[in-house]
Amino acid sequence: MKKHVVYNRKGVGSFSLLMLLFFLFVNGSKATNSASAFVHNTIYSHKIVIFSKSYCPYCFRAKRIFSELKEEPFVVEVDLRDDGSQIQYVLLDLVGRSTVPQIFVNGKHIGGSDDLKNSVDSGQLQTLLDTV
C-alpha cells in the first residue's frame, strides 16, 4: 500500500510568499539606496536638474523655459531608465511628489512646471541662478 504525503499548501505558500517579500525587501532596499544616492548626487552635482519623462508635456515646458533662459539643465528621463520607478519613490520621499517634472536649481527644489513658471515671473529663479 502506497503512503500519501499531504503537504500543507497554505504553509508552503506562506513560506514562499515570506521568502519572496524578504528577497524584494533586501534587493528593493539596495535599489532604493542606489536610486537615492543617484538622486542626491545628481541634485548636488549640477546647477539645474529636471527629473522628467520623455513624453510629458509639462516636462517639455520646463525644458523650453530653461532653453529660453539660455540655461542647460541636466535632465533625467526617468521613463527611459531601469531604476525610474525607484527614482520616483526617492523623489516622493524627498519632496513629497512623485510626479514629473521635478526641478532643482543649485540644490533647491523648485517644484514642477507651474512652480518653475511662477519662479521665473517672480524673479526668484534668476536669483537662484545667480547664486554660486
Automatic annotation (TrEMBL):
A biological process term (GO) from this entry: cellular response to oxidative stress
Keyword Disulfide bond recorded: yes
Sorted UniProt keywords: Disulfide bond, Electron transport, Redox-active center, Signal, Transport
Stretch forming the signal peptide: 1-31
Keyword Repressor: no
Similarity comment: family membership: Belongs to the glutaredoxin family. CPYC subfamily.
Residues of the Glutaredoxin domain: 48-110
Cellular-component GO terms for this entry: cytoplasm
Gene Ontology MF terms: glutathione disulfide oxidoreductase activity
Gene3D superfamilies membership: Glutaredoxin
Protein name: Glutaredoxin domain-containing protein
Superkingdom per UniProt: Eukaryota
InterPro entries, per database record: GLR_AS, Glutaredoxin, Glutaredoxin_euk/vir, Glutaredoxin_subgr, Thioredoxin-like_sf
Role according to the record: Has a glutathione-disulfide oxidoreductase activity in the presence of NADPH and glutathione reductase. Reduces low molecular weight disulfides and proteins.
